[in-house]
């Protein structure tokens, strides 16, 4: 690790520890990224939230996506002290499958739920979207990345269809 990266890591650790002291009910654990990567596979349920810098977060989120079965399942948020934040799926734009009805829309839909919850304070609306997605998956609808025979429009249409009945 270069000296500059080491200094940034120490600053990050100091700042996170300082902020964590304001929330004594929240457990804080520091890990080196290589250990965090191993622990994520070994015992993923030990993690509720992982706070890290962009490069390590990018690597760990791609790894975590495979625990769900697909990179197309995970939403993400980049939040600061003020402002609405940036909400997006962890995956890229996937131009190689554009127009082929293969992309999983759920990370995008769930990113919208995160925007509603954390960016706009609309908890009920976020829960309705999340419940609609869960109901769609519970009914067995899948895209090809998480099941062998799925279509994007079917998954998206059913998620929207279940939205009004979700609580």
UniProtKB/TrEMBL annotation:
Residues 1-157 form the Isopropylmalate dehydrogenase-like domain. The keyword Transmembrane helix does not apply. GO terms for molecular function: 3-isopropylmalate dehydrogenase activity; magnesium ion binding; NAD binding. The keyword Metal-binding applies. Keywords: Amino-acid biosynthesis, Branched-chain amino acid biosynthesis, Leucine biosynthesis, Magnesium, Metal-binding, NAD, Oxidoreductase. It is an enzyme of class 1 (oxidoreductase). Its cofactor is Mg(2+); Mn(2+). SMART domains: Iso_dh. Pfam families: Iso_dh. GO terms for biological process: L-leucine biosynthetic process. Its EC number is 1.1.1.85. PANTHER family: 3-ISOPROPYLMALATE DEHYDROGENASE (PTHR42979). Homodimer. Belongs to the isocitrate and isopropylmalate dehydrogenases family. This is 3-isopropylmalate dehydrogenase.
């Amino acid at each position: 690790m270069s000296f500059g990266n080491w200094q940034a890591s120490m600053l990050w650790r100091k700042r996170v520890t300082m902020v964590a002291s304001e929330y004594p009910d929240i457990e804080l654990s520091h890990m080196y990224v290589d250990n965090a990567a191993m622990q994520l596979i070994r015992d993923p349920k030990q993690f509720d939230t992982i706070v890290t810098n962009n490069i390590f977060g990018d690597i760990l989120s791609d790894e975590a996506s495979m625990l769900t079965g697909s990179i197309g399942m995970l939403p993400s948020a980049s939040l600061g002290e003020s402002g609405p934040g940036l909400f997006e799926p962890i995956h890229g734009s996937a131009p190689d499958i554009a127009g082929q009805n293969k992309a999983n829309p759920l990370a995008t839909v769930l990113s919208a739920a995160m925007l509603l919850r954390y960016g706009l304070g609309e908890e009920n609306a976020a829960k309705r979207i999340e419940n609609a997605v869960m109901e769609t998956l519970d009914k067995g609808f899948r895209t090809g990345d998480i099941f062998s025979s799925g279509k994007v429009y079917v998954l998206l249409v059913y998620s929207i269809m279940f939205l009004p009945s979700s609580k």
